[in-house]
Amino acid sequence: MRVSLNEIQVMCRKAFEGMGFAPGDCEDAAELVGWLQLQGLDGVGALEKALLYLQAEAAQPYALSHEDDALLVIDAKGQSVLRCAATVVELAVAKAMRSGQAELRIHHCHNRLLLLGYLSRAAVQGLHVQARWEDARQCHLADFTAGIQRPALLSEARPAADTAEQGIRVLFSRHGQTATAPANPQSTLQQGFTVNEHTWQRLKQLAEHILVESTDASRRHGAGGGSDAD
To answer: Is residue 190 part of a domain?
Structure first.
């Protein structure tokens, strides 16, 4: 099925809210999924892979393992990277802006592709950003030129016998020259995006959790029925 960018972001925002994300985080994460779609990186498909972790481990907090002026190390405790991405990238960017360079390491995290949307914002702020991560078969590199939202992506085969840690390492560095970002292709926005119908239905089910909660609250208070103190 084909949907517009606006439909994707609205549906994702409602789904994130249904999973218990705070309002501001809902908007942030929905924008991230839309950004991935625009870059041809199948944001909706990446989100579907994250749903298991986002729903099953929502209450499990991530932990700060180490922090100094140029290094931030996070233990995500097996959660999707979405659960900590916005906060930790913002902290790492602040360090890089102050000292010229910073490193972010996130251990024990899933859905690492979803981090790229947050890293693109760091690139727009004038930072050169490199992210490296591994899975069972490949090593991946995403390289953002300062000022450019879309990264250069490289994947290389890795020895099958090695055990890959579910983590990601990101380097932020400040350079004097910032490139000019090209405009997003309008033809893609006009044509919309193809998404898996099963995935879309899963997102709709999550979004319906908001309607259920609203209905329960409405029954308790009633339309025009006043407050509990009346």
So the answer is: no
Q: Per-residue pLDDT for 214 more than 80?
A: no
DSSP SS3 for 173: strand
Paired with 139 in beta bridges are 134, 156
Strand partners, 59: none
Q: Domain containing 46: what range?
A: 2-177
Helix (H) or strand (E) holding 139: strand 138-144
Total structural domains within the chain: 1
Q: Choose among 171, 180, 85: nearest CA to 127.
A: 171
Which runs of consecutive H residues, i.e. helices, occur in 19-72? 23-38, 43-56
215 part of a folded domain: no
Distance CA 204, CA 1 (A): 14
pLDDT digits (tens, 9 = 90+) for 130-160: 999 998 889 999 999 999 999 999 999 887 6
Picking from 132, 189, 144, 134, the residue whose alpha carbon sits closest to that of residue 165 is: 134
Spatial separation of the C-alpha atoms in residues 195 and 197, rounded to whole Å: 6
Report how far residue 69's alpha carbon sits from residue 94's, in angstroms, rounded to the nearest whole number.
Answer: 10
Identify whether 151 is part of a domain.
yes
CATH of the domain at 92: 3.30.1370
Alpha carbon 126 to chain centroid distance? 20
Return the number of other C-beta atoms located less than 10 Å from residue 141's C-beta.
14
For residue 211, being part of any structural domain is answered with no
